[in-house]
Write a structure and sequence with these properties.
The chain is mainly alpha-helical and about 240 residues long. The chain has nine helices and three strands; from the N terminus they run ααααββααβααα. The longest helix is centred in the N-terminal third of the chain and has 36 residues. Bound molecules: zinc ion.
Length: about 240
């Protein structure tokens, strides 16, 4: 019994020592692991790129946000600043006419437009001599600009309209035909006939909007800006700055 006990005891001691040795080894390994994990000389790996955080391409049904959120730049249909010129004297830019020098270099001396009688309802074309009519408008501005105080005078607000060639005996007047599509308005014809006042406020604001003029205010204000703006387009170095 005693021997067995002693033997068992000896064996227990051996086992205890072995276990203790294993624990030491384990502790040593743990220390090594900890010391290697927290050693300051080991560089901290950079965070993975964002695409690694998402699912693999196989499950990636939606495109990456960067691509999905990329702004799409395009002109709204029919809203670009350039349009097909509606007349030989119009520029491709909206509400803009060619300069006088350019027109004369292109042998354009006559400007045509359509008018319609309120009474007989017949419509026909009127021709204006470009140079002669521009001198009339320009001369009026030079003479009266100071008195205008940035507002269209009565002559422009209530234009004198031509007499209808079909019913002139009755003294009927014709009005310029102003098309519904604002980009096709015959601005130069209206200027030369000093009939821009036949435009409504929306049409005048359209002109000012596309020629970078202040476009709020009453009709006399935007009408004044339209007259001077068109004259400046025709003669950029002329005395037609609105202010
Ligand atoms: Zn008529």
């Amino acid at each position: 019994m005693n021997n067995e006990h002693e033997m068992a005891t000896d064996q227990e001691i051996i086992n205890r020592k072995r276990k203790s040795s294993e624990e030491d080894d384990h502790n040593h390994d743990l220390q090594l692991t900890l010391s290697s994990s927290f050693t300051p000389t080991t560089p901290i790996p950079p965070p993975p790129p964002p695409h690694f955080l998402r699912s693999t391409p196989m499950f990636n049904a939606t495109p990456p946000p960067a691509r999905r959120n990329r702004p799409i730049l395009y002109w709204r249909p029919g809203k670009s600043e350039t349009v097909p010129p509606p007349f030989p004297w119009a520029s491709p830019r909206r509400a803009t006419v060619q300069s006088l020098a350019h027109l004369e270099s292109q042998q354009i001396f006559t400007i045509t437009g359509e008018v319609q009688c309120n009474k007989c309802e017949k419509s026909y074309e009127i021709q204006y001599d470009l140079r002669e009519k521009f001198n009339e408008v320009g001369g009026f501005i030079v003479k009266n600009k100071a008195a205008m105080r940035d507002r269209a005078p009565n002559e422009w607000l209530n234009p004198v309209l031509p007499i209808c060639k079909f019913c002139q005996k009755q003294g009927s007047n014709v009005k310029p035909v102003i098309v519904e599509k604002k980009r096709e308005i015959n601005w130069l014809f209206l200027l030369l006939g000093q009939m821009i006042g036949c435009c409504n406020l929306t049409q005048l604001k359209y002109f000012c909007k596309h020629t970078n003029n202040h476009r709020s205010g009453a009709k006399d204000r935007v009408l004044y800006l339209t007259y001077l703006g068109l004259c400046k387009q025709l003669q950029p170095n002329g005395p037609f700055d609105p202010y």
